Structure formats: structure tokens, C-alpha cells
Amino acid sequence: MQESQLKHRVLLLGDAGLSTISPRQASLQKVIERAKGVSAQTSVIMLGDNIYPNGFPNKTAEQNDFNPEQLEDISHLKAQLEVSRLSKAEMFLVPGNHDWYASQVDSQASYIASYSKKNNTKVSFVPYKKNKKPLPQVIYRDGISLIFIDSMWLLQANKADFSEAMSQLDQFLQQSNEKHPENVIMLFAHHPIETMGPHGGYYAKLGYEFYAKTRELINGQDTQDLDFPAYQRLINGVKFALTPYKKTIFAAGHDHSLQLFKNTKRTGAQYSLVSGAANTKKLTDVGNNENTQFASSVEGLFEIDVLDSGVLLRIYDIYDSSPIHQQWLWKKDQK
Description:
Structural class: alpha/beta
Radius of gyration: 19 Å
Number of helices: 8
Strand content: 15-25%
Shape: globular
Helix content: 25-40%
Number of strands: 16
Largest sheet: 7 strands, mixed
Order of helices and strands: EHEHEHHEEEHHEHEEHEEEEEEE
Distance between the termini: 26 Å
């Protein structure tokens, strides 16, 4: 099946916060299928907004148990965690803006840790350390460096915290380059650095009414859109950090579509992608720009294989067994 031996597989799916357990969300079932058989070499990355609409529910002072509505919210998260139990692959969940609408992400992190321990799965909420700033975290796998940032926290961070996070990101990038110079570098967040969906200012007819109702405005600007000043600070910081390195990919969700961009300039990640299409009911329209190599508004996911011969990207929807898009990002014989 593979062109050469698989070193590591990364499966990318975001905005799964309305996922169902029974029947199992089709996109999650596809992830399980793509992870099975190579689970020891697979990392499943959930790219934020793990519970809609307001993150992990909090009990009131009068509550002893979660009410039915809260339990339903939690079931959407559990549906995602079941992927690791059923596939045996490791899983990482990144926080998104909807996760932070709970005012904190401690409850979600605690639930994930408890689930992992109870079911003997390898599931982590990243970046996260209790009672500490969610600064970047890095994990190394064969042929690939996985770096996680909490983009929602960074959008709200003061100048000192933002600088500290970017400094740590720089350290991890340098460390990866020195210790693992041949590694692909993948940086994961919820918020994309490029998108032709609603958060990038693309308003297609079908998606406008829904988007207009969900906007967070400050001085007339949406805090979750790329042109918001704090968002621009994040984009510029990430691009500056990634520019010196080769074989870099930035992966995010946030817009509910599948998008792949190839950077034509010498700044930032060489490739960036949006994989926020975990649920057909949440899909939004998408456009194209000069960097677009693929764009579709369909429930599905990205798969990136690091092979002996290079790095191969595939995109799957929930309807076909074969990928709907496939291309080499890098070949071993390429300079």
C-alpha cells in the first residue's frame, strides 16, 4: 500500500465538538480505520473546539451531578476520546476558542486525563499544565517533531506572556533542528494562519447568515477573524518563528472545511492547512486564493505520512474509501 516504509502517520481532524457516539460520527470512524494496523506509528490530532458551544460544562453550586444537557455536551468529547480506545493510537486534543468559552479548560483536561487512565489509552490535552501558563509543548516521533500551541490563550495573552510563548516556540524549533535535522516540523493550533473560509473574510451566500449570528465583536472587529489585531500578532509571530526552517507544516481547524495551502513566499510554514470539517452539520463554505492547492466543504480529514521516501499527504472524506486528494509534500530526492 505504501510507497516505502512508514515512519509515522498524523491524522488531523478539528471542530469535532458535536460528534456523536451512537451512531459514531463518520469522520471519527474514518480516523479509526486509518489508524488501525499502524496504531503504534500514528498520532491523532484533534484541532480544537472539542465541545460546542461553551466548552466543558461546569456544575453550579447546587449541583451534585451533571444534568442531561451537560451529559450530552460531554458525550461529544467522549466520542472523540473513543477513537484512541478503539484504534489504540495516541491522541492529542488542542484547545480552541469554544473550549475556552467555559472560562477555563481545567475541567476538560481533567476529564481527558481521567478517561485515559480508566481506559488505558494514550490521550493528552495539549498544551496544558495545571496552574501554569499553556506554553508550547513539543513531542518527537520518528521523522517528525510535533509542536502544540494554545492559540486562543495567545490571542488573549498580554505582551509579556505572548513573548514568553514565542521564545519557547523558538527554543523548540532550534532544538528540533539541532537534534533531529531531518524531521518534518508540524505546528498545531486551533486558529489557522491562512484560510479562505469565513474567518478569513470569505463570506459565501450559504454560510453568511450563520456566521453573522456567531460573531464576537470588539470595536466592530471579530476577535476570531484573521484581520483582528491580536490575531495578526499571532500570525506574524508564528511566521517569523517558522521562516528559518525547512519542511514545516502549520495545521489548524477553526473554519469548518478542508483547505491546503502552499506558501509561495520565503516566510512562514511551507505548507499550511485547515482541517475543521469533523461534522457535516457545521460545514461552512470555502474559497480559493493563489496559494490554494485544495479546498472543499465536506466532512473529512487530513492524513500525513512520513515515509522513508518522503512526506505524502492524503485527504479523505466520509463517503469514499480512496482519498479525494493526494500529493507529495516532499520527496527524498528533492533538494
